[in-house]
Amino acid sequence: MQRKLSSLSLVALLGVTSLSFAQEGKEVKLEDVVVTASRVEEKPENAIPFVQVIKEDAPALATSRDVGDVMVSAGTGHVHKYPGMLTGRVALRGLPNDAHGDILKSKVLILVDSGYAGTVNLAKLLVDEIERIEIVKGPASVLYGSQAMGGVINIITKKPKKEGASGLANFEAGSWEYWRAKGGAGYRKGENYFYASYLREGQSDYDAKGFGKYKNTGYNIGQFFAKAGFSPANDWNFDASLLNLRADVDTPGGTYSLTPKDYKNSSLNRLGFNFHTPFFKGLFVYAKDEDTWHTISWNTKTNKKVRTNQASILRDFRLGPVSFVFGGDYINIDVKSKKSPPPPYYPKSESENFGLFGEAKLSLLQERLLMGAGVRQDWFKVKVKRTEGLRVNPRDEDFSHASFRAGLNYKLRDDLIFKTTYGTGFRAPTPDEMAADYVSSWGTRYLGNPDLDPEKSKTLDFGFVLKRKLIHLNAAYFITEYKDKIISVPHPTLRRTQTYVNVDGAKIQGFELNLRTELATLFGLPFSVSPFVDLTYHTKYRTEDSKEITSYGTKTLLWTPKWTGTFGITLREAKWSATLYGVYVGDEKVVDWNSFSPTYMKAVKKQDFTIFNLSLSYSPIKNLELKGTVENLFNRKYEYVQYYPMPETMIRIGLKFNY
Prior knowledge:
mainly beta; 5-stranded mixed beta sheet; disordered N terminus
């Protein structure tokens, strides 16, 4: 891999600048709200769907490098995490986004500041600029349309918290030549603010337990982030954010087929604009997600660009005891692929989506009972375009789909809430599944099926939220029916031709729990003692796809552990904190892709594992923090994806100036 080691001058400049003008500022206190459950701000206890909120100081966020790491620690289910800066398949309630990074084939919607993130590779979304992550569990297509089958992950980015000038400088080092440097500066006056930061990060090849040096696992990242807000009057707010990420990443291959020289160049550029007025709220997003793979052994270079454009507007208002949200979305996703030497593997394609939605919430019994219901209608146009080097018959197809959700939130007591929802979700057919007509470079013809139905889910859930001074508990049980799964099959009448059909999907049921407690008061301790647990336990996860059962030899839903969980404890005092937590991923059935294995292309059991992580921080003086983390504390052998082992014990230490 060709590494581009650029100067850290911008990091130093931002850090030094922040130190030079930093001054004591009053911190702005913000009320706890969530925005993802209903697309407008509301108190967490008033949200009807189940929402898991991961705040900035939570262990899952504070000790992670990227959002893929956060989801591992969130205990929501399977995470497909590779070395080489790729976290693909992430599941909510057993329904995943796409393992190969195809936005249009994903069943979990990824948002940044309530707009499309522009990628489903969560390793491209670093945690440095995240204020909180809201995870809405269960189908949310009634508000968000396609992909929101399993739920929605909404990443809310930071604003300066203190009035006046602020800044930071952050330096870290660790195992396998890991290093990170970051500088940032900001200014806030009321609701007007500006913030910018730049970071560089790199690491060399790591050692894997039981394998040794896992060559070609290094990476080098640079990221610029900026955010600004302007408020000319009360209830008039305009926010803009810019993200530019560049990475040179080694791609080692699986242990059965190592690729010691392959690498990829990755980037994510995203521009978002949000507005909030007394009349309308809305947003605009432009994003370009790009990867270029350099396969040295085949002497090929493959490039994929995905451009996402989104425009959304909504109006919320209240009439007596009923609050309403009405709005519309326009989403355009354009995909281009190139290969050197040609031809590319896939043709150019485009998906256009226009959706209208509305949801009402009725408040009764002095707001102790909240009942909500909503509907959405989506219209799609998908296109497969002429592509240089491929024999393509350009086609386009149109279709539409409706979604529904209803639920209630009943306060049994001031501190105890019962919730239940029933809703539908869907994943729209992609351009290649519905409109393809081309001959691939290996001679197979791919023919889309214009009669495809969207993939669908129906989910019923129910549970409780308990919120007291010393305990906060979310517990829910869900029942999901997944149907009309889209798969590729040989065409019934045409030779050497693949097409697409709908088949039965899966039946998934399970239990979710998020628990936070505070024990210091009970034991009279002078510092905070906070145990926590996050887990998902699947009581049923059975595929209904007969072709999958026949091909892989199992009725168990693939890449779905029976249970995943995180459990730990945080000790905290004014100057120091310590967190020890374990991550458990249960055994799961996966497909063996090792062509040298006797179980090649069959379902095999991937072993469960538990790893422990330790995080420490200490502030000897105001504005200075010393921190350290130990990942895989007991040096266990583990892997999220079969044949891709994760690192041995990794130690990182750092210091942070924060004003």
